[in-house]
Backbone:
């Protein structure tokens, strides 16, 4: 028969009390850490870092790159876009609808318009009208000095998560090319262009549709939108009020 002394009993008793005390303290600590106020404070710090530090840094890089025409800044801009994307919150497509101005892109065709006199005029603006959930319409508009325009119209839909996974599995691109961060799914939108119109010298010329694809929304708030797409192009938009 094992005999436990009174001293040992006291030791066990005090040890048990210490265990209970530490457990209660840990519970209160976790409760405080996970309180809505603490979470909100954390989110506010993240948003402040994005809005006051990272986005201005990105904007400075875009200006220095002449809106993407100077390719020597491309790597730094992509890295900054990925850094911002890692801090995004819920589904970024919630605030996607609206009118946007394209301020940076790696897309060769767009940059061709910006560096070529087509049709004999400089590009004055490149904008996009997007309504993801109501009309599901997307319009890209390139405006030229003197009134010329090139308009591409189409449809757009939010891609469900399982569809997104299937497309990623079918794609042969690696993560560094398309901007995806490991173990992170961006919010995808599929689009299909259904027609195009060129307005030159006050005349409209209807052109055939020019393709379909998807773009992933890496980040989107009230001012900026970052994306990469199925052609491995990277773009930054600024919201137009």
Residues:
């Amino acid at each position: 028969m094992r005999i436990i002394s009174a001293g040992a009993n006291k030791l066990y008793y005090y040890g048990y009390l210490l265990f209970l005390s530490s457990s209660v303290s840990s519970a209160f600590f976790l409760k405080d850490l996970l309180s809505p106020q603490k979470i909100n404070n954390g989110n506010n710090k993240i948003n402040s870092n994005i809005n006051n530090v990272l986005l201005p840094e990105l904007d400075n890089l875009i200006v220095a790159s002449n809106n993407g025409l100077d390719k020597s800044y491309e790597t730094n801009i992509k890295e900054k876009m990925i850094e911002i994307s890692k801090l995004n919150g819920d589904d970024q497509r919630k605030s996607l609808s609206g009118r946007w101005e394209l301020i940076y892109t790696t897309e060769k065709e767009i940059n061709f318009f910006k560096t070529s006199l087509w049709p004999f005029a400089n590009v004055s603006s490149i904008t996009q009208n997007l309504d993801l959930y109501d009309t599901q319409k997307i319009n890209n508009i390139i405006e030229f000095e003197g009134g010329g325009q090139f308009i591409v119209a189409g449809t757009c839909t939010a891609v469900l998560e399982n569809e997104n996974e299937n497309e990623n599995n079918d794609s042969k691109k690696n993560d560094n090319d398309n901007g995806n961060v490991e173990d992170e799914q961006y919010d995808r939108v599929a689009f299909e262009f259904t027609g195009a119109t060129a307005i030159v010298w006050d005349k409209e010329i209807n052109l055939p549709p020019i393709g379909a694809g998807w773009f992933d929304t890496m980040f989107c708030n009230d001012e900026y939108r970052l994306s990469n797409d199925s052609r491995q192009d990277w773009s930054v938009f600024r919201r137009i009020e």
